[in-house]
Design brief:
The protein is an alpha/beta fold. It folds into two domains: about 110 residues, 3-Layer(aba) Sandwich (Rossmann fold), CATH 3.40.50; about 130 residues, Nitrogenase molybdenum iron protein domain (Rossmann fold, 3-Layer(aba) Sandwich), CATH 3.40.50.1980. It is built from 13 helices and twelve strands. Helix 6 packs parallel to helix 13. About 50% of the residues lie in helices and about 15% in strands. The protein is globular and about 60 Å long. The strands form three sheets. Strands 5-4-3-6-7 form a five-stranded parallel beta sheet. The longest helix is centred in the first third of the chain and has 55 residues.
Length: about 325
């Protein structure tokens, strides 16, 4: 009887030991599987974060050739520059800008809610706005500004002096609005053609833009208001304007004396006058001067005084400009 009990005890003990070994093996197996699953989950989470980051930022090559990461869809933009109307027309969320002290009429109430950051920029004010992107149109005039701004948020240099089509395409690349930009440019090209069809210009009919600033008289090239009147559908460029301004790299306008007016004057003359007493008095004197009276365009009555606020090619002004130009020329 004792032998039988001892034998059963040994068998039971062996079975119990085998059971413990099996449970331990299962536990180790489950632990390894759990660890593996945990690592896989962690890896997946990291991939998801990386994917999310790649979707919210994009690689952008600045005009200076630098590769930077910028928000794919910026929500709080600070722009330092004067072509603010482009941002408003494109619905880019502008939170700060060195706002004009005397805003043009075409702005309406669209500047409301945008903080004036000073001229050109107060760093402390910009910091309080918590921008996710800063666009610096003053990078050439103040090289140190870009570095200081970069400490606040991603900052990219920008050239507001580009022709409006190039400028707005660049803005589309920055803001992820390439498709909207394409449609917008096509719309303005159609409006431009319709306007010039209404004007019924003769072939090679020329025009010149003069700008009176204080006592200095300038001839303008194909920027700002010049961008509106020249081009595929517009006026032809007088040879002297083409040679001395448009064909010269980095030149947008040229100071001229009254003696060379006949050389630059086209078949139509647009005179833009800075809104201050000295400029207005000097423009009045110019329009009454003997040499001005000898110009063929003056004799034919093809002289149009344009308010200074319209010396622009920003998108917000363009649509109204295409309506106003025929009015100024009495060809509504």
């Amino acid at each position: 009887m004792k032998k039988l009990l001892r034998k059963q005890f040994i068998l039971w003990g062996g079975s119990f030991l085998l059971l413990l070994l099996m449970l331990s093996a299962c536990s180790n197996s489950n632990g390894s599987a759990s660890d593996a699953q945990g690592k896989e989950n962690e890896k997946t989470a990291q991939s998801d974060v990386q994917a999310e980051e790649s979707e919210t930022t994009v690689q952008y090559t600045t005009i200076t050739g630098e590769q930077v990461e910028i928000p794919a869809d910026p929500k709080r933009v600070v722009y330092i520059g004067q072509t603010t109307g482009d941002f408003l027309a494109m619905d880019i969320p502008l939170v700060g800008n060195n706002l004009p002290q005397d805003p043009a009429s075409y702005y309406g109430d669209k500047l409301e809610g945008i903080v004036d950051i000073g001229n050109p920029a107060n760093l402390e004010t910009i910091l309080t706005l918590k921008p996710d992107l800063i666009i610096n149109g003053y990078y050439k005039s103040d090289p140190n500004l870009n570095e200081e701004l970069s400490k606040i948020a991603t900052t990219i240099p920008f050239n507001p002096a580009l022709p409006y089509t190039e400028r707005v395409k660049e803005m589309g690349n920055i803001s992820g609005k390439q498709e909207e930009v394409g449609k917008m440019i096509a719309k303005f090209e159609t409006q431009s053609k319709e306007m010039f069809d209404k004007l019924q210009l003769a072939k090679e009919e020329t025009a010149t833009v003069f700008y009176q600033l204080g006592k200095i008289l300038y001839v303008m090239g194909d920027r700002n208001f010049g961008a509106i009147i020249y081009g595929e559908n517009g006026f032809a460029v007088p040879p002297a304007v083409q040679k001395n301004i448009i064909d010269v790299e980095g030149v947008s306008f040229l100071e001229v004396s009254e003696e060379v007016l006949p050389e630059f004057a086209g078949d139509h003359l647009f005179v833009i006058v800075q809104e201050d007493g000295e400029s207005e008095a000097e423009a009045d004197r110019l329009l009454q001067s003997p040499i001005w009276g000898t110009l063929p365009a003056v004799k034919k009555g093809n002289v149009y005084v344009v308010p200074n606020e319209w010396n622009t090619d920003n998108l917000l002004a363009l649509e109204q400009l295409y309506k106003k130009l025929p009015e100024w020329m009495h060809k509504q």
